[in-house]
Amino acid sequence: MFVVMVTLYLSSEPQELLPFDGSAVLYNLFFNEDFTREAFEFLLQNTPWEQPEIVMFGKKHKQSCLSTWHSDAGVNYVYSGVERVAHPMNKILSEIRRRCEVAANSKFNSVLVNLYRDGSAGMGWHSDNEAINGREPTIASVSLGATRRFDLRHRETKQTVKVDLEDGSLLVMSGLSQQCWVHQIAKTAKPVGPRINLTFRLVQSV
Ligand SMILES: O=C(O)CCC(=O)C(=O)O
Ligand SMILES: [Mn+2]
């Protein structure tokens, strides 16, 4: 299998990670350290964390990361067979959203907030291709806290792109990226601290 390891130097130049079939643009250091520290602490303390069950191969499993769903209009969202309670946006989420909307040149009405407490938490191979996200969704993914590796794998060619998602980074996935690629955050035995990830989306049925 052909694996591309993307090495990133300290730079705020956006970088395209996908060679074809969609786009995933990484903005390193998109948010500065003071902002990310404050946002991380606020979200850690003030988010009504849930540990939902997902249905995989017909069986229910507790997800290894905690999460909550926040949306403008209070729509409930179903993913991986589980209906999520919609919590309101708060000030910090709205501020982060505003900055993502400018960079991504898109509107977002909801966000999935994930907490990976340590390396035993991950998210298996999937794509955000549910109908509710639309056919070619633009998704803005913000990382706060510990660095974790993010992998993308092409559904047909199996080509893999691996990249570290660092504190303060923004990854904008768009076009065919959800149709043609799957992505994951692999669990790791390495000692890693907590990480919060925010994926802003424009849910269609609001
Ligand atoms: O934590 C991440 O970077 C990815 C999260 C993700 O893929 C999702 O919430 O759908
Ligand atoms: Mn995803």
Question: Could you describe the 3D structure shown?
Answer:
With 206 residues, the chain is an alpha+beta fold. It contains three helices and 17 strands. The protein has one domain (3-201): Jelly Rolls (Sandwich), CATH 2.60.120.590. The protein has helices spanning 33-46, 91-104, 177-180, and strands at residues 3-5, 15-16, 23-27, 53-56, 59-62, 66-71, 77-79, 82-84, 86-87, 110-116, 123-126, 139-145, 148-154, 160-165, 170-174, 181-185, 195-201. The longest helix is centred in the N-terminal third of the chain and has 14 residues, at 33-46. The mean pLDDT is 91.
Name the descriptors.
206 residues, alpha+beta, Jelly Rolls, 8-stranded mixed β-sheet, 5-stranded mixed β-sheet, 3 helices, binds 2-oxoglutaric acid, binds manganese (II) ion
> Helix share of residues?
10-25%
CATH class: Mainly Beta
Shape from CA axes?
globular
Portion in beta strands: 35-45%
Helical element count? Answer: 3
How many independent structural domains?
Answer: 1
